[in-house]
Amino acid sequence: MALDMEKLNEFVGKFVQDFGASLHAGTIVIGEELGLYKAMAEGPATSVQLAERTHTDERYLREWLSAQAASGYCEYDPATGTFSLNDIQAFTLADESSPAYLPGAFLVSVGALKSIPNLIRAFRTGEGYGWHQHDAWLFHGTEKFFRPGYAAHLVAEWIPALDGMEARLKAGARVADVGCGHGASTLLMAQAYPASSFVGYDYHEPSVDWANRTAQAAGLADRVKFEVAPAKSYPGKDYDFVAVFDCLHDMGDPVGASRHVLSTLKPDGAWMIVEPFANDTLQDNINPVGRVFYSASTMICTPASRAQEVGLCLGAQAGEARMRKVVTEGGFSRFRRAMETPFNLIYEARP
């Protein structure tokens, strides 16, 4: 077999990039957990100075800094031997209020990778692997990764795109956030709409405990609460607004969940469904964003769905057509794409 050497070298170059990225992910998590990026944002420093600043071992830190510089995650000045973050690096790596804060994504990645032995077994047997079975880094990373995007878009763009819902929330509404995780989306809405009351539901008890502590610390516990409940049987009736953020595709029975959401809404209520951006066909999702979501779906979303009853396994690249089918089979009569971002699709469903 005669190989095209130019194409071979091109593919090996891609491998070098991916291999380096896979190892570099671990260094980003180390930097996030130890506060190294935030310390670097304070100003240029040698490895010795940064070790003193962060109370870490200089030799380890020197190697870590070298990896960051080689990866383009910090700047190195050979004349002074100092490392620093430029404005973009500081904005994305050190500022947790930034809409483009990135370290959480690597917590998700490294947390999911810890489950590889279990996922290999799942591939062989067809069994599921539940969200709750993953390492806690996945839960913390998910909050850190999704919260900046929600903070940037949820109140400013997504809710205003829904028919009449912004005014309703300002006047005072009853809201359920289903599959709320650590409650970042719930708390962002509660802070923006002080006349409304909110309850977040999730089947994962440690996440619910975390969310309640966060609500208490934020001074919102008087009108925000979190409870352990699955999507198909959470309590309450006559909600004005139900939201589901980046998790309908993870559910084993999303049609059953849709049916239950409908039963808990007021006749004039609305359901907002936030999902990863996806086109309807595989060939249209073969791109860098699709690569991220298909990979995450292989390790997290599809096994989570398979671990539940029905196990529909929509996957993170379900697309609008499949979501429409799920929602309308659940009994909703109206479904539309309210808006989109490069990473999300925002749907509005009405009874």
UniProtKB/TrEMBL annotation:
Residues covered by the Methyltransferase domain: 170-284
Superkingdom classification of source: Bacteria
A matching Pfam family: WHD_Rv2258c
Signal peptide (UniProt feature, chain positions): none
Start and end residues of each S-adenosylmethionine-dependent methyltransferase Rv2258c-like winged HTH domain: 28-93
Keyword vocabulary terms for this entry: Methyltransferase, Transferase
Database matches in InterPro entries: Methyltranfer_dom, SAM-binding_MTase, SAM-dependent_MTases_sf, WH-like_DNA-bd_sf, WH_DNA-bd_sf, WHD_Rv2258c
Transmembrane spans: none
Gene Ontology molecular function: methyltransferase activity
Annotated GO biological process: methylation
UniProt-recorded name of the protein: Class I SAM-dependent methyltransferase
